[in-house]
């Protein structure tokens, strides 16, 4: 190919290449010819060659050797060469290239050129790739051009000033007078540039924001002029007069009206007029309406105006465009905490969006539906959510189950309804629930003593129907083990009477034990349930003994250990079996209002008053038990042939209600008084927007340290996707354990804890940097905190 091939011929040759290797060959030959012509001092086709090089650069091939040619062409007096030179500079240069500094003087000269198009080239280049040094040197020239009489130059100078403010924030003060004067221009391009410049200045400096609040009446007048103006072919887009300028003005009004009563009052009438008169049948009108809604919801607007804004979002939900429905639900989710009643009016439309085919719309509809659940609509909303759960995509099931659990625990009208709802979720999506679901449901069932018979019958039928849902099977096994006697009686007023034999129950448990779908944890539940039934049935104890003995040689170590211990109860400690396998006591929680069952300080206590009311035997205090039980306990712990010295009752230590198992064990093994436990020192390291993070340390050894991070949410909206990341000095080894949960309910209903193990062999000064990430009302937040000294360490 000849070096003088025109640009069109080169493009045609590249496109006709049948392989990538052939394409590279064409480009390499052309680049070699371009290099050769760049070296010639008298080259009349420089702009032609640089244009071809820019096309090569667009294809992704290296073109850096053309940078100096761009600098030379920018300095050329010919407009055709300047145009290609500036275009090459914007494509091949950036602020990190040293060659960019060489064009600073050329740009300064061209900014004073008599030709407006040459000035425009210099302004576009500076706005595209101007470095901080270039912006400082050329800012006075830009300020001068902002006061030019040429509208074409002023609109480009305004956008160039925006770039300068972003690069060097301190130069914003230079452009304030000129920016304010530009609002009196009639040219829409100049007005658009002025509004963008003022928006940038206000976002970066609070003092500038206060000064520009005085321009709110001017902006309102400009906006009213756009609304009432007649048809203008130059600015009309689908019947809307200059929607781009309208959106920019509304965005600026939102910034100026935020946290300002006077500015908000000045724009309330305008916003109502825009919201009422803008056509919502076209996408352009919807864009203006959406910006209006955001402005109304962000400023201190009147209540009626906020209801109007919510109703506009409700109309968006009925739009056939999924993008419009998505942004409507995103906006509604942000205000559901403050305008809950207004959003509730559109609950039916939001629930209908759960049936949408688009996965993003479904996710937003699910998040918003969960946020709309309240005590007044809990039954109807959960019914819709359960219906959605049966057909929702796999990636949404975990979020749906977690949200249903939180809502059911917070607003459950009755315990039976609560239990039925959770069992329905486990039956539908038992494989997608969190690990804490099983103990939480067990706690709920245990405390609902009047529903034990109903629950065990319902779970038994569910177990016979499906054993693939592991969480459901685990709860069913636990209930059958605890309340198997109620199941065998068949006297349940809540459900249809079903005659269940002992063999039927054992067959069901044995099926779980032998199923390939059962996990190790599920088999452990089933084996324990089988063992507990040995004290609740009379005719099949030998069968239970044989089932347990089979798993004494199981390859699963956990299952084998359980079987060996249960065999020991049958053989050596049969007299203790009834006491060991009696029903679990009622469970009380220290903290109330926990959501989704994740409590922060649970204690299991045996409530004597409840047992007495139910006619059960209340156990005597430990110091009054026969000595034989003490020998049996020591025998289980290791055995001793020496007799145990009796300790008088008056000298025994009182049992601590804080559950200090270490003190009781020391008392049994020798009467030593345990030293009082000193709580780990705690410090609050982060507190912002309702999120509080505390840190406590506990020294494990000379070099190891256990750090516990505890997070709570005191705001009015739930937090999801809560994650913590920690960084320590390089010589310190860090091991972060799994967090207790990844969501924080509103109003401090529950807390998240995460254990961090630190190993500091070199004894360096411990510092920790923690990154906090979470999502609230559809918006992602991220923050970082530096902990220079850990509490309790010298």
Automatic annotation (TrEMBL):
<dbReference type="InterPro" id="IPR002553">
    <property type="entry name" value="Clathrin/coatomer_adapt-like_N"/>
</dbReference>
<dbReference type="Pfam" id="PF02883">
    <property type="entry name" value="Alpha_adaptinC2"/>
</dbReference>
<feature type="domain" description="GAE">
    <location>
        <begin position="678"/>
        <end position="791"/>
    </location>
</feature>
<dbReference type="GO" id="GO:0007417">
    <property type="term" value="P:central nervous system development"/>
</dbReference>
<dbReference type="GO" id="GO:0001944">
    <property type="term" value="P:vasculature development"/>
</dbReference>
<dbReference type="InterPro" id="IPR008152">
    <property type="entry name" value="Clathrin_a/b/g-adaptin_app_Ig"/>
</dbReference>
<dbReference type="InterPro" id="IPR050840">
    <property type="entry name" value="Adaptor_Complx_Large_Subunit"/>
</dbReference>
<dbReference type="GO" id="GO:0003401">
    <property type="term" value="P:axis elongation"/>
</dbReference>
<dbReference type="GO" id="GO:0006886">
    <property type="term" value="P:intracellular protein transport"/>
</dbReference>
<dbReference type="InterPro" id="IPR017107">
    <property type="entry name" value="AP1_complex_gsu"/>
</dbReference>
<feature type="compositionally biased region" description="Polar residues">
    <location>
        <begin position="589"/>
        <end position="612"/>
    </location>
</feature>
<dbReference type="Pfam" id="PF01602">
    <property type="entry name" value="Adaptin_N"/>
</dbReference>
<dbReference type="InterPro" id="IPR016024">
    <property type="entry name" value="ARM-type_fold"/>
</dbReference>
<dbReference type="InterPro" id="IPR008153">
    <property type="entry name" value="GAE_dom"/>
</dbReference>
<dbReference type="InterPro" id="IPR013041">
    <property type="entry name" value="Clathrin_app_Ig-like_sf"/>
</dbReference>
<dbReference type="InterPro" id="IPR011989">
    <property type="entry name" value="ARM-like"/>
</dbReference>
<dbReference type="GO" id="GO:0030121">
    <property type="term" value="C:AP-1 adaptor complex"/>
</dbReference>
<protein>
    <recommendedName>
        <fullName>AP-1 complex subunit gamma</fullName>
    </recommendedName>
</protein>
<keyword id="KW-0333">Golgi apparatus</keyword>
<keyword id="KW-0653">Protein transport</keyword>
<dbReference type="GO" id="GO:0016192">
    <property type="term" value="P:vesicle-mediated transport"/>
</dbReference>
<comment type="similarity">
    <text>Belongs to the adaptor complexes large subunit family.</text>
</comment>
<keyword id="KW-0813">Transport</keyword>
<feature type="region of interest" description="Disordered">
    <location>
        <begin position="589"/>
        <end position="625"/>
    </location>
</feature>
<keyword id="KW-0968">Cytoplasmic vesicle</keyword>
<keyword id="KW-0472">Membrane</keyword>
């Amino acid at each position: 190919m000849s070096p003088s091939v025109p640009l069109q011929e080169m493009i045609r040759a590249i496109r006709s290449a049948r392989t990538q290797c052939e394409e590279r060959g064409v480009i390499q030959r052309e680049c070699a010819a371009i290099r050769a012509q760049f070296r010639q001092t008298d080259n009349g086709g420089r702009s032609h060659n640089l244009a071809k090089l820019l096309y090569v650069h667009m294809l992704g091939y290296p073109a850096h050797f053309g940078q100096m040619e761009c600098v030379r062409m920018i300095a050329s007096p010919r407009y055709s060469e300047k145009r290609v030179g500036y275009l090459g500079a914007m494509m091949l240069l950036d602020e990190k290239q040293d060659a960019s500094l060489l064009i600073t003087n050329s740009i300064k000269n061209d900014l004073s050129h008599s030709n407006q198009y040459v000035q425009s080239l210099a302004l576009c280049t500076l706005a595209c790739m101007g470095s901080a040094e270039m912006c400082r040197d050329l800012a006075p020239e830009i300020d001068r051009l902002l006061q030019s009489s040429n509208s074409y130059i002023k609109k480009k100078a305004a956008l160039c000033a925006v770039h300068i403010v972003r690069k060097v924030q301190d130069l914003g003060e230079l452009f304030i007078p000129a920016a304010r004067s530009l609002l009196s221009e009639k040219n829409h391009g100049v007005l658009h540039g002025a509004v963008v410049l003022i928006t940038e200045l206000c976002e970066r400096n609070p003092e500038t924001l206060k000064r520009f609040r005085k321009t709110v009446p001017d902006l309102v007048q400009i906006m009213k002029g756009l609304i009432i103006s007649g048809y203008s072919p130059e600015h009309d887009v689908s019947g809307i007069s200059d929607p781009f300028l309208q959106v920019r003005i509304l965005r600026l009004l939102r910034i100026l009206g935020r946290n300002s009563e006077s500015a908000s009052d000045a724009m309330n009438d305008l916003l109502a007029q825009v919201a009422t008169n803008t056509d919502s049948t076209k996408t352009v009108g919807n864009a203006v309406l959406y910006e209006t809604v955001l402005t109304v919801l962000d400023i201190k607007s009147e209540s009626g105006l906020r209801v109007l804004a919510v109703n506009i979002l409700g109309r968006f939900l009925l739009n056939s465009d999924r993008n419009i429905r998505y942004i409507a639900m995103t906006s509604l989710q942000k205000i559901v905490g403050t305008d809950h009643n207004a959003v509730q009016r559109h609950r039916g439309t939001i629930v209908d969006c759960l049936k949408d085919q688009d996965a993003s719309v479904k996710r937003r509809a699910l998040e918003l539906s969960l946020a709309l659940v309240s005590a007044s609509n809990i039954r109807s909303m959960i019914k819709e959510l359960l219906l959605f759960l049966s057909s929702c995509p796999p990636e949404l099931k975990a979020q749906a189950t977690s949200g249903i659990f939180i809502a059911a625990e917070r607003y459950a009208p009755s315990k039976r309804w609560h239990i039925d709802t959770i069992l329905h979720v486990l039956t539908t999506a038992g494989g997608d629930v969190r690990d804490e679901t099983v103990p939480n449901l067990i706690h709920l069932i245990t405390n609902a003593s009047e529903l034990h018979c109903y629950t065990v019958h319902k779970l038994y039928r569910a177990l016979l129907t499906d054993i693939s849902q592991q969480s459901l099977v685990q709860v069913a096994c636990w209930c059958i083990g605890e309340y198997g006697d109620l199941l065998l009686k068949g006297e349940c007023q809540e459900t249809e009477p079903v005659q269940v034999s002992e063999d039927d129950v054992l067959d069901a448990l044995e099926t779980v034990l032998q199923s390939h779908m059962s996990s190790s944890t599920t088999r452990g539940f089933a084996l324990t349930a089988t063992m507990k039934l040995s004290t609740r049935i009379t005719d099949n104890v030998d069968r239970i003994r044989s089932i347990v003995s089979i798993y004494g040689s199981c390859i699963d170590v956990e299952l084998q250990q359980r079987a060996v211990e249960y065999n020991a109860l049958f053989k050596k400690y049969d007299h203790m079996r009834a006491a060991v396998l009696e029903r679990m006591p009622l469970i009380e929680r220290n903290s109330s209002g926990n959501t989704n069952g994740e409590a922060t300080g649970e204690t299991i206590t045996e409530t004597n008053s409840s047992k007495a009311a139910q006619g059960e035997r209340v156990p005597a205090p430990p110091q009054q038990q026969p000595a034989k039980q003490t020998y049996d306990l020591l025998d289980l712990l290791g055995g001793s042939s020496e007799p145990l010295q009796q300790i008088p009752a008056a000298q025994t230590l009182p049992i601590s209600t804080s559950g200090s198992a270490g003190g009781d064990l020391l008392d049994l093994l020798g009467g030593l008084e345990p030293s009082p436990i000193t709580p780990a020192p705690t410090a609050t390291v982060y507190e912002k927007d309702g999120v509080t993070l505390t840190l406590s340390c506990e020294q494990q050894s000379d070099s190891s340290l256990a750090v516990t991070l505890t997070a709570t949410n005191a705001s009015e909206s739930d937090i999801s996707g809560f994650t913590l990341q920690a960084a320590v000095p390089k010589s310190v080894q860090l091991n972060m354990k799994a967090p207790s949960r990844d969501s924080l309910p509103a109003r401090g209903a529950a807390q998240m804890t995460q254990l961090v193990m630190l190993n500091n062999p070199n004894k360096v000064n411990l510092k920790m940097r923690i990154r906090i990430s979470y999502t609230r009302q559809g918006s992602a937040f991220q923050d970082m905190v530096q902990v220079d000294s850990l509490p309790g360490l010298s």
